[in-house]
Specification:
This is DUF6534 domain-containing protein. Keywords: Membrane, Transmembrane, Transmembrane helix. It comes from Gymnopilus dilepis. This protein is α+β, with helices and mostly antiparallel strands. The chain has a single domain, classed as Rhopdopsin 7-helix transmembrane proteins (Up-down Bundle), CATH 1.20.1070. The chain is built from nine helices and four strands, in the order H-H-H-H-H-H-H-H-H-E-E-E-E. A four-stranded antiparallel beta sheet has the order 1-2-3-4. The chain is globular.
Length: about 325
């Protein structure tokens, strides 16, 4: 005689199964991307490699732990409805590791924005939001470990979940909008360079929008369906989406470098210039900011900030100050 089917088992167990499957699929995609990064950019600076491989180690640990939970839920505890309610080690793999990963990636983007915009204030705002959502995610993980029951999370972890996911959405949208704005200010007479800028803008918007949309879906499912576990599917995949998009942006330098190989110059520079309102009559001062340089031979990308002061011919003095900062990444 067959055992009776547990009512609502599909809505309870299905999201877990899909989440674990998607998690493994994204881990496979990430492994391929990390391998491509290792083969193409082994000469990157230490902090860039530490970021990529450090996040990959975190994602590997998360995948191993989540696989342990999957085996315990669908093999050891097969048919036991209490296993589907237990948070097990999901408090570690989803909010805690996910919060650390998303916070790290967002702070890296804030660093890029500080170079593009030359504004520490804008970057500081993004860092504060990233740290807030990361702290909320860690808090939610601790609460989940103490509560131990998915059905009670919505009532007892409402504030931490709201801060975590809404903070992630806000931070991702700000990053995409601000980076697109400063990239769009770049100007160049070279057609290939203009095309490259447009592709960078599109890439920034697409990657930022992807994580933001998934976070929005996650928070909607969490509060709209309190009796089901639909939220788990996007929750467990969110961290790997952050890491995949970051490594994808690093690896996109290879494509951009190949496209620029036909250019006669070693470097192609994108500059966003603005007039200095404090300049004197007969002189002109421009700030060439956010100069993105692609060295096709080494597939290396640098951000340089340069100020040049042009003085009237009647003047016998000319001053030039250069500020340059570089980082490995697009």
């Amino acid at each position: 005689m067959s055992s009776p089917v547990i009512p609502g088992i599909q809505a309870t167990a299905g999201p877990f199964l899909l989440g674990y499957v998607f998690n493994w699929g994204l881990y496979g995609a990430l492994s391929v991307q990390v391998y491509m990064y290792y083969m193409s950019f082994s000469n990157d600076r230490f902090h860039a490699k530490a970021l990529v491989f450090g996040l990959y180690l975190l994602e590997t640990a998360q995948t191993i732990i989540s696989t342990h939970d999957m085996f315990r839920t669908f093999a050891i505890g097969f048919g036991d409805p209490l296993q589907l309610r237990s948070t097990q080690l999901d408090w570690l793999t989803v909010p805690l590791i996910g919060g650390i990963v998303s916070c790290t990636v967002q702070i890296f983007y804030a660093y890029r924005i500080s170079i593009l915009s030359r504004s520490k204030v804008i970057a500081a705002i993004i860092v504060v939001i990233a740290l807030t959502q990361g702290a909320a995610a860690i808090t939610q993980g601790v609460q989940a470990a103490i509560i131990g029951d998915f059905t009670k999370l919505r009532s007892e972890a409402f504030v931490s979940v709201s801060l975590w996911l809404s903070g992630s959405v806000l931070c991702d949208i700000m990053i995409a909008v601000i980076m697109s704005y400063y990239l769009s200010r770049s100007n160049s007479s070279v057609k290939a360079t203009r095309v490259l800028v447009n592709r960078l803008i599109r890439l920034t918007i697409e990657t930022g929008s992807l994580t933001a949309v998934v976070a929005v879906v996650d928070i909607i499912l969490f509060f709209a369906f309190p009796l089901n576990n639909y939220f788990f599917t996007p929750s467990i995949a969110l961290a790997k989406l952050y890491t995949n998009t970051l490594v994808f942006i690093f690896n996109s330098r290879a494509v951009h470098g190949r496209e620029l190989d036909h250019q006669p110059s070693d470097f192609i520079t994108l500059k966003a210039s603005r007039a200095n309102p404090g300049g004197h009559a007969g002189s002109q001062s421009t700030d060439a900011v956010s100069a993105i340089q692609f060295k096709a031979g080494e597939l290396n990308t640098e951000i340089s900030i340069q100020r040049e002061t042009l003085v009237d011919k009647s003047s016998n003095s000319a001053n030039e100050t250069k500020f340059q900062g570089s980082w490995e990444g697009v």
